[in-house]
Amino acid sequence: MAQRTYEHRTSERQTNERQPAEPRTFDSYEEFWPYYVAMHSKAATRWIHLTGTLTGLAISAYGLARGRKRYAAALPLIGYGTAWPAHFLIEKNNPATFGHPAWSLRGDMQMIRMMLAGRDRELAETAAKWLAANRP
Fold first, then answer.
1. In terms of C-beta density within 10 A (0-12 exposed, 13-18 middle, 19 or more buried), how is residue 70 classed?
2. What is the band of 72 on the pLDDT scale with cuts at 50, 70, 90?
3. For a disulfide at 32, which of 26, 64, 86, 132, Cβ 3.0-4.6 Å?
4. What number is the average pLDDT over the span 53-62?
């Protein structure tokens, strides 16, 4: 698989301003995963992702069960419609979806499964470890 580059922006804790973009490259999903979690370092961002995805999924399933195919659009609209503002407003970074859409979708599903299994603390630790090792 070809190496891909992604630029992200992170916030400075003291000033709450965006840092300059830094290119990130990943050769595998396993290498991407800690970075993905770090881009969701704040619990509020993770919980907004979970809520938006599950709400979109529920509305889509309801609509499809009722034969209303247009409800299928609820999953990406509500899922991304809640997740992306959380990145801009809470994390002060760009969604990883912009650079790695397939890996980000996989990451979302893995993150949500872990949260539903009560492993949110593990996600916070993964994010903190990646950020500590990769901050300028």
1. exposed
2. very high
3. 26
4. 94
Percent of the chain with pLDDT over 90: 69
Nearest-angstrom CA–CA distance, 40 and 130: 11
**Cα-based distances in Å from 68 to 48, 58, 74, 79, 120:** 26, 13, 11, 19, 35
State the number of CA atoms in the 13 A half-sphere of 21 facing the CB.
11
pLDDT score at 97 = 85
C-beta neighbour count of 29 within 10 angstroms: 15
- Listed in sequence order, the residues at least 6 apart from 7 whose beta carbon sits closer than 8 Å to its beta carbon are 21, 22, 23, 24, 94, 99
Helix (H) or strand (E) holding 27: none
Q: Are 111 and 29 contacting, i.e. CB atoms less than 8 angstroms apart?
A: no
Q: Residue 78 contacts by C-beta under 8 Å, 6 or more apart in sequence? A: 52, 53, 55, 56, 59
